[in-house]
Amino acid sequence: MYHDFKLIEGRPVSIQVKDYMKRLMIKGALQPHQKLPSTRELGVLLGVSRNTVIAAYAELADEGRVYALQGKGNYVSEDSAGSAAPSSLSWQLPWKERLSRQALLAEELDLMKRGIRAGKDTISFTSIAPDEKLFDLDHVKQAFLGRMSVEGHVLLNYGYAKGYKPLIQYLMTYMENKGVDVQGKDMLITAGFTEGFDLVLAALQQKHGAVICENPTHHTAIKNLKLHGFDIKGVTMEPDGIHLGELERALEERPYDCAYFVPSYHNPTGIVMSMEKRLALMQLMSRYEIPVIEDGFNEELRYSGAHVPPLIASAGSGNSVIYIGSFSKVLFPGLRVGWVLADRELIDYLESMKRARNIHTSTLDQSLLYQYLHNGNLHKYLKRARAEYKRKYELTLQTCKAFVPYKTLSGDGGLHLFVTFREACSVRELLEACTRQGVIFTLGHHFFTDGRGSNTLRLGFSRVADEDIVRGIRIIGDTAKQLWGLE
Amino acid sequence: MYHDFKLIEGRPVSIQVKDYMKRLMIKGALQPHQKLPSTRELGVLLGVSRNTVIAAYAELADEGRVYALQGKGNYVSEDSAGSAAPSSLSWQLPWKERLSRQALLAEELDLMKRGIRAGKDTISFTSIAPDEKLFDLDHVKQAFLGRMSVEGHVLLNYGYAKGYKPLIQYLMTYMENKGVDVQGKDMLITAGFTEGFDLVLAALQQKHGAVICENPTHHTAIKNLKLHGFDIKGVTMEPDGIHLGELERALEERPYDCAYFVPSYHNPTGIVMSMEKRLALMQLMSRYEIPVIEDGFNEELRYSGAHVPPLIASAGSGNSVIYIGSFSKVLFPGLRVGWVLADRELIDYLESMKRARNIHTSTLDQSLLYQYLHNGNLHKYLKRARAEYKRKYELTLQTCKAFVPYKTLSGDGGLHLFVTFREACSVRELLEACTRQGVIFTLGHHFFTDGRGSNTLRLGFSRVADEDIVRGIRIIGDTAKQLWGLE
């Protein structure tokens, strides 16, 4: 006994001794009423000071796990033992048979559990998360300490389901500056885009059980739409956004409960919908009275070109657009903060749903983000990030043009490009061949609502080093040419 | 124009000027191709330096909202105007008619929207949140800075749906030290207890559509059970926990999908279930093969008495107990961190559901909490908090005994007491009379599964000053005596 005690760094030693002794009691290695080694003895056995053991024993006594007998030493308490459960209580439940459709489907559709694992040294184009090397940690620390010194006690206690008020105010102005008429609208802070989307889908009555969206579209959105039981109608993408004719025909054919669009840096195609198309799209939505969920994905990552207001701005004083925003891709995904901007009455219901689900979003995340934004750091950061991502974007674009035998290539900015090969080409085969050469990417078909896209792939470049972008894309291109005899 | 510019503190002035000008463009006060004041002029008009205006104009040009004409000055861009929506796009949707049953019910059951607002100087016994004056902010800051310096870049990028690994490891050991056999079990980190509970309920197949629990019980749990459509069977509480005879009769009568119990510092009665009762309870659950959701509520707030292991410890190697823990009430509710400890296969499904709902819990919250715990701060904090809460607990208890004409009074510790008057007494009337005298508390009937409890109330004392505890409870007692002619 006492030979397997190992000190870990940075944790008070007396607590480690206490935990260690507790473990021995629970495992039954120390029995109730057994005498413990003297403090001097245990200090020697564990290689710690006597005072440390004295502190540990005092803590154990305080927790009722040890009692002292005057002049005799310390003993293990009656209640301290592990409660060896009678075997009658240890029954096994076949959990899988007790699970809901939602639980089973969530696991089945969980791409993170199905993806290829990237080995070390693999060049991976699968991520569109920001490059953490760009993070300005000093400003983050500053924001945290600044906010904590203003109202640390308040931040650590319960907050509001609707969100941290200064952040809401900041973001309302932020959205107003994008041209949104905020009269009659309100905002709910969520744990990122995904929570906002999930809440909105749960709040919608399924009168028709169907949603219309772009095809391809954000695979997480497809997953959540399926989990909520919606039929999904995807409408083909053109180089400047959704195919309006096809959209109109679909709208004539059957009713929909809502539409979901990603007008800027559309995931996965990277397309920014033109202003004309945005207005025409909104005309159709208005005519068919379909509420729109707008995914404000990466709107901030404009490398060039004019300011394009979001769909919710085009709706003016109308209340039919639900805008869901997030700084996750642009700033820090580890901070789970997003927002839903929508009709005030709707937000009121969403607030109650949010409260029922998790009380509120982390106040620390919200207040840190608020202070970071308030300090004017976003602008500085975006300048630097945009310059870096733009360089990578252009490198990726040029390298694809030089080496990849694609049919079409899309991406007006953002953190990824979308590649389409000839119909017959199986990108799954290409991925297998590339994986063997240490290069991976995301299969495009995950983004399609109708099983198509087996000839497409998404290339995320945000976290790939320049030389790896060139090397990786050459390998993809060369392999594609070999595989399909293309030139 | 330019007269309503107001500087706010702490935000870079050039950004404030930029935002202000942007707003004028969006409101149409500045029209496309209109000439802007010179930098010197605008500096004078807004009371800022010329260099600040130069920086603001440069930012606006960078965003494509302003263009410069050599030697002539700066002009508003074409695209900069607010997109005044054609009125045809501004249609109004009657949201309430489009909402799901879940959304409507969540709002209806949202007590936060139905509660009485406490005016200034009101003595409020409604909260059982921790007293923020006890928070050790210096240790929190230290934990944050410590973790950021170790792996700040990693913390701010995406984490894992299952949770932050060091925290999971810490908590697994923590639970092992409570006597839990962790073999075959796993852990999911959630945004507090509530999210864990909501996820588990969504994961359960509703074969019978019914849940059995204590009556009264945690009102948030009742709300979530209702939102998930469960029938709720509540079993009467005795002074040492649930009434076993009544429980057994209920189990004989019909099948249940699961049970929900709060064995320690039961909310709202404050009762700690005896060890004998825990074992007998688990025998029954085992016999009827009912999975148990255990709410580890405030287990840490033991003021005296022996260590009582949680139900999941009694189940030994069995996999039928789902333990949901949180430090919210004990430590910092603003950090939304809880955990679900359960069968490994079940956790695997819950992980996919969590990912679909919000990707993962805030890494900042998790890593800060981990570092705080690792540094050994919990023990120090709990010592101080327990001493403080114990004093308040005893004061509340004594004052109730002295002044309140209750029939029974319960609470073995924790942050609240539960008061039951004679059957006929309407606590709602009492609350109305007390509110007029500046004292409020929580109506007990919110905690009942069957509409009973109109003669009960909960007194949360954690955030009430000593003198207010005495003054407030005297008022409650005196008012009750007057109202009901009791002595």
UniProtKB/TrEMBL annotation, chains A, B:
Cofactor section: pyridoxal 5'-phosphate
InterPro entries linked: Aminotransferase_I/II_large, HTH_trans_reg/aminotransferase, PyrdxlP-dep_Trfase, PyrdxlP-dep_Trfase_major, PyrdxlP-dep_Trfase_small, Tscrpt_reg_HTH_GntR, WH-like_DNA-bd_sf, WH_DNA-bd_sf
SMART domains with a match to the protein in the record: HTH_GNTR
Keywords per UniProt: Aminotransferase, DNA-binding, Pyridoxal phosphate, Transcription, Transcription regulation, Transferase
UniProt xrefs under Gene3D superfamilies: Aspartate Aminotransferase, domain 1, Type I PLP-dependent aspartate aminotransferase-like (Major domain), Winged helix-like DNA-binding domain superfamily/Winged helix DNA-binding domain
Domain HTH gntR-type: 11-79
A Pfam short name: Aminotran_1_2
Gene Ontology MF term list: DNA binding; DNA-binding transcription factor activity; pyridoxal phosphate binding; transaminase activity
Family designation: In the C-terminal section; belongs to the class-I pyridoxal-phosphate-dependent aminotransferase family.
The protein's name: Transcriptional regulator, GntR family
